[in-house]
Amino acid sequence: MKIFWIFQKLLSRSPFKLVKAKFKFSARTTKSKNILSVYKTNELLINSNYKILPGNEFRRILKVNDSVLNPRTGIIWIEDKLLLESTLWSYEDLFKFEPKPIFPKRINDIFYSLPDNGFFHFLIEDLPRYIQAKKYGDKHKTLIGNDSKYIKDAMNLLSPNSVELHKYPVKLKSLFISEKIKGTLFSLYDLNILHDAFREFRKLNQNLKIFISRKEDKGLKFKSRGLFRKNEIEAIVKGLGFNLVYLEDLSLTQQIDLCSKASLISGFHGAGLANIVWANSGTKVVEITGSRVTSHFEHLSKICGHEFHRFSIESDLLYLQKLLS
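RESULT FIELD:
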């Protein structure tokens, strides 16, 4: 299975693809006998329009039968078509690296899925939806595609002794998922799901100042995130009384505990900054970045009610010092 799946992945990057781009399916526009809506959330989707099926204006929990799942990415194939509601990636991008599995291993069981698309996507995109889907039939197992530290931490808390690891595509009897809809990467609804699930680890209003650094010291990410001034900036924040932290050294619950205590969180652009979701509303957030400018942390700050600032690494460090004082 491993060798064949690697071959498929390599082939998907070549001019000779196994799947044509037209092979996609949306459960919001087309009915399927293999997809059952078991619950509709109270969250009204902002991008509903006349093209969707009636009653689809809310995010839904779906029971997907007789499907093929890539446990690593969470992407689902049903009726030989990629299910668009299983991913927030564009189909055009997926076509470049996500082939339709040809010989998946069959598992006759019912699951939830917690994929691993990197820590940011895990915390913001996948974890809230996993928790939401798991409310409907809590006795089923969770299928994971990677045993990274944060995935194992989450499973130890949310689904102990009920996890199966499969690194390659599998064909499942049934799978419960919470829909992924473009335009709703992270909402107040998702924030409340996280806070409710991990409320015992949040220690609010302790007025800490936290600076999230990175151990990375080379490569493109190093430059694009502004880390070429890492030593200068770390010296500034230490002088201002910040707790300088490397979150990759901490467990998930330690990250929640630490970041929930903060009244000011700053750091280099990167997945660690997603932990601002644990902080109390009104926390000051200062993102430091170079050429890599996205709206991710600005959006998260808006949902959380934080005060957001972005500092360009090309700017005068005196301005950063002022922002952090």
